Fold each of these.
Amino acid sequence: MARNEETLSDIDGRCNCLAARQASRYLTAVYDQALSPVELRITQFSILHKLVNDGPLTMGDLAGKMAMDRTTLTSNLKPLERDGLIDIVPGKDRRAKQAVVTKAGLARYKKARPLWSEVQSRFEDAYGESLAARLRDALRAVLDSGFDPWADNTVDAQA
């Protein structure tokens, strides 16, 4: 087998993105299941958490805090807004919209918080508290690896 073919055949074992996505899907399913009694998914819970603790936030600020592109953020906000858990309102600068937690959103967040705490503890018991802390640190460090995945990379055709 040629070197290039050998390298390509080992993508499953070497691809950082694949490993992170597999682990992410696995943990997402675990947390989604735990939060199902309050009809929230982990992404929705995380957004509510950011807004409860740091909000109101502009769409750009919330996207940055969630490490999400704005299109994905918008699609995640729609069910929260539809269910009356958040409101999208004009910001201080009328050109920028803000997400704000409603009373119903705060109440749902407070119901979800113990469910999140329980699944968080179960994961740390199973995986190891120290390993879980190191995993979070390593994953957060990825966000500082120097890439700008949501930058506008379009090239001006006249340049």
Amino acid sequence: MSDVTRAKHGRPVHHWRRDVVELAALFTAVAVADAVANLIGHGPDGPALLVTSAVVLAATAGFHTWWARHHGHAPPATDTDTGARPRSGEQQAGPSAVAVQATGGKSALWRMRTTVKDEPGSLAMLCTALAALRVDILSLQTHPLGEGTVDEFLLRAPGELPAAEISRAVAQAGGASTWIERADAHDLVDAPTRVLGLATRTALDAAELPLALRQLLGRCTIRSLPASPLDKGRGVDGVPVEGVLEDTVMRLRAPEGGVITVERPYLPFTPTEFARARALVELDARLGPRVPLSEDVLTLPEGNDITVRRADTGDLEAAKDMHERCSARTLAMRYHGPVGDADRYLNHLLSPRFGRTLAVQTRSGRIVGLGHLLWDGDETEVALLVEDEWQRRGIGAELLGRLVTMAVEAGCESVYAVTQASNTGMVAAMRGLGLPLDYQIEEGTLVITARLDAAPVEARLPYERQQRYGERIVRD
């Protein structure tokens, strides 16, 4: 039992060695005093020696007092628990600040996911390994599994530290199936705030569901498959209402009865991610079909007013009527197939589940143009159809500019259009975007891809604009 422990329990602390030393010091002091007394009493300079000793002792005491007043007892430089607090206006540097100073102010953000054993101390070993590399943990999410736990980190590391070294240190600390990639400032938003933001976007616009799932789950491919009349409530491919989770693939029942397939081949989904995705889809199903109500009223150069607004399946009959007014050549340019089959595409194209659609209508309410932004797995397609009598008025360019702006806002890296070389109007509209274009011929059709690495595109036509929200009109 240590002295500290014994003192806490009220027991006296004695050591026989200390008593022996004290006795020896006492006998030594008596012997020295006797020798000094004999020297002073029997020597000729005894009184002078005594006075000199008194002066030296007084001077020593005075110097010690002066030194104690002018020099405090500062704690050792390595003492980090001084109890001091920064003065007003000062900030105390934390571990992340120290790491940044040690690397000359350069740091990098990383998103990392690893699997550890579900036992005490496993997370502590992982954190210790990261701390040894001067890596700061900004956020942590845990995904419990049957035989372990998936830990998802947002890290700030020294700029010169490679990802391979971080992964190696994590593996030595017990992490398995480690995945790491660069992050950016958008990842600094905590998970609850990000999920609430995605839910808000989904609530405002049904077309946001695929994009919200992609941002919720990271890099993944999302495909929608419509329901078949033969399924009889079982869902496409027999997917139950609660959905199916199969390692790197999850299948969810879409609100309209189809199936949404989400695939992420490089990283298995966790039950936690599956539950979040299901909750987002359920929210979309409860809210039902919806599109934003805003409209833009544009005045064409010849004086006609047109309205550009979002469209959905409620505009199916009006879109079919526009098809009947279009020539066979216009429909063939748009659909690249039998003209008689054009109508059967409309229900798919107008569904918010597969993308966004803009409609152009006249003052009388007749639709004369449609523009589609379609989610095609990891890619995004744009398509236009303008009624013959309303072509060559800039309507197609206006629709295309708006669709590309939507794609930029959705975080798409590129958009492509499938057309024919003889469709000079579509080719000119794509060139008018002012974006880098790639051209490719596939099976007799022309595929034009626009890379969205430039500024967001806006319409350049000299229209007089009005924005209508319900009954209120706001003029630019």
Amino acid sequence: MASPIAATAPYWVPALSMLMIYRRVRRNFGVQPWRPVRNGIRLGFLALVAAMLCVLGAFQPQLAPGLGIGAALGAPLGLLALKHTHVAWRDGQRTYTPNPWIGGALTALLVGRIAWRYTHEGVAAAQAPSALTLGMATVLIGYSLVYAIGLMVQMRRLAAQRDAADPPAP
């Protein structure tokens, strides 16, 4: 007999996924306040997920090519997104304005793939890992890791520029 959690997973896993996707989409548009603690937590979580995907690739070699290609595509996309991100001071707080097209396109690609699996392969098949789905997820993870690290560097540089421009009063 399946546990109540496992029996209800087809209902709450998609709902939780949609909540996470909503939060991700919301972060792609408009001026965003810089929250270093939240970024650090996100970076730690992404690193943990990336490590788990590496372990998965080691134990299931048929998934490794998708994971490797995903990481190889995600990192340059993160660098491209950083190039098009604007950082600035607003009302005494560091902010950034991400380019919505790259992050939005990656999110739409992943959501489309998940929706395809649920509608064409069924709920049971959608819970089993696929090289293509995990590859797309790895693109998003690689992109997010590079973007989070690069944004941290840009924000430190922005703070250093302000400190250099406004020396402390004697």
